[in-house]
Amino acid sequence: MSASTKDIKKLAQAFLRDQGYYRGDIDGMWGTLSNRAFKRYSDYLSSLDLDIGGERPVAEDGVADAVSGIVVIDPGHGGNRKIGGSSPNNATSASGVLEKTMTLDLAKRVQKQLKALSSGIPGSGIKVHLTRSGDTNLGLSDRAQVAAKKDADVFVSIHFNGFNGSVRGTETLILSTEKGNVNEREDRELAQRIQSAMLAAIRRFDANARDRGVKNNRRLGVLSDISLGNTRGESKTRACLIEVEFIDTPAVDELLNTGPNANEVRNAVAEAIAEAIIDDLRANA
User: Is residue 187 pLDDT above 70, yes or no?
Assistant: First the structure.
């Protein structure tokens, strides 16, 4: 029995994901996200004077299913004083860049990528809101309540880690069931999509990137289901908190802030997060 076109496209998606260029679901639905991954991989081969299978790349003209939803992105920290459990800043990069500055920068890039990706898929409509757009601070419950007020499908809080100047790794956190999470399974699925996407993006530029995985946490007030508007009977908002990397480690600081490719890396991470959110919206439509 010959393979169907959808099965072939699934194999292509799996291959592109293994190479670190695709961050969508392996579903055989070849559209905008697959095309972008295919082009990135083709461009990489072209830079080496290579072709796929000895042939010139062939562009696909399939169209992905439309996707809609409401997304709230929370740039961690901000301002100059602690408010409602939210500190103004925690980590500082090896070169002195503050975490609160990096979270806002990445949040705006994710917002831009979500709008761009949505506009490239006919019939789609994704609304994106930030909990803050400047150097201000909001309490943890206030951040979550933005998602409740906007009736958000997805809430992602962006952070960067710091420890001892040598630790590496990317991790994504969700609230534990023991702490009252009413939709841990859905939150974990969102978190795993984003974790895999971020890690693949970073590994394209740094092979030393480390996967610290998806973890339960008992104390994440920003992910409180009560503040997010989730109840046992209705759990609309899927939520997670990402720790992109340890910015006090010099290699990470160079990767994200001071190195020649820092802007490209930040854009790649933002695009990865945006694509993962789109996958989650589509899976939960």
Answer: yes
Provide the sign of the torsion angle of the four alpha carbons 100, 106, 112, 118, taken in this order: negative
Task: Report which of residues 236 and 24 the model is more confident about.
Answer: 236
Q: What is the pLDDT of residues 121-131, one digit of tens each?
A: 888 999 999 99
Report the alpha-carbon distance of residue 50 to residue 42 in Å, rounded.
9
Of 166, 181, 185, 173, nearest in space to 244 by CA: 173
Give the whole-angstrom CA distance, residue 197 versus residue 216.
19
CATH code at position 244: 3.40.630.40
CA dist 109 and 270 (Å) reads 6
pLDDT in tens, 28-47: 888 778 888 888 777 766 66
Q: Is there a contact between 170 and 205 (Cβ–Cβ < 8 Å)?
A: no
Domain co-membership, 16 together with 153? no
3-state secondary structure of 206: coil
Q: CA-CA distance, 278 to 65, in Å (whole number)?
A: 11
Q: How far is CA 240 from CA 51, 92, 130, 229, in A?
A: 39, 22, 15, 15
45 is in which domain, residue-wise? 1-64
Q: Say yes or no to pLDDT of 77 above 90.
A: yes
**Is there a contact between 31 and 63 (Cβ–Cβ < 8 Å)?**
yes
- The total number of structural domains in the chain stands at 2
Boundary-marking domain end, from 33, 64, 95: 64
Which of 87, 39, 102 minimizes the C-alpha distance to 255?
Answer: 102
Same domain assignment for residues 213 and 118 = yes
Tokens found for residue 235: 């759990």
